[in-house]
Amino acid sequence: MIHLKSDKEIDKIRASCRIAAETMACVMEEISPGVTTLELDQVAKKFIRKQGAVASAKGYEVPGRPPYPGSICISVNDEVVHGIPGQRVLREGDILAVDIAVKKAGYHGDMNVTMIAGQTDDEAMRLLSSTRQAMEIGLQAAVPGNRLGDLGHSIQSYVEEQGYSVVREYCGHGIGRAFHEDPQILHFGSPGTGRRLQSGMVFTIEPMVNQGTSDVRDLEDGWTSVTVDGLLSAQFEHTVVVTRDGPDILSRFDDLPF
Description:
This protein is α+β, with helices and mostly antiparallel strands.
C-alpha cells in the first residue's frame, strides 16, 4: 500500500535528507588515497549522532542476511551496492558509491553519490557522468500522471544509449516512516505500464549502472553485490516527492554540491 505524504511529513523527510546531505559533505572532505572505508564510516557515524539522528542502515535486517554492520554503505569500483565499510584502503583512481540514509523525528532520508579517490581515467569519469544524468532523467519523470514504467524506461533508454547496462536486481523505493516502503522504483521498464504517479508520493531514484553486463553476484559477507565481469559500477540517488508543480528533490540543497 502506498501512503501519500502530507506537507508535514514531507518537511520531516526533507529534514532527514538534510542531515544525510551534510553527512555526505563531511565524508567527501575525507576521501583520498590512503583512507580506509571504515574511517569514512566513522566520520559519518559521528556526524549523524551529533545531529540527534540515527543511521538507517545500521543493524538493518533482511531475511537470510546478517544485520548490516555499518552506518553507511561504501561500494568501491566493481562493488555495485551495499559495500560494508572495513579495512580496505582507498587507492588513487578508486570510485566509491557512498550511500547515506538517516532517521530523525520518525522519518528517513536517503541519498547516494559516487565519488573519486584522487584522479581517475576518462572512461570512469564518463560512467559517473552518465549515471548521474540517468538519475536526473528519472527525477524529471517523477510527475503526476506518468507511470512507473515510463520512469524506468526513461532511465533504461538513456543508459543503454551510452553503452552501459542498468542493474535489475535492485531498485528505488518509497520512503517515510519506514526506510523501505511501496512503491518499488525499477530503473528499467516499458512505457505506459505500472502504477500512475500521484502527488504526495515520496520515493528514491537510484540507478546502478554497470560498464559491462548488468549481471551481479553477492559476496560471502551477505551484503556486498559486485559485477560478475569485474567492470566498474556507479550509482547516484536522491529522494523526491511528486507534486502538481513537478518533482521536488528533498535531498538536494542549494548550498551543497549534490
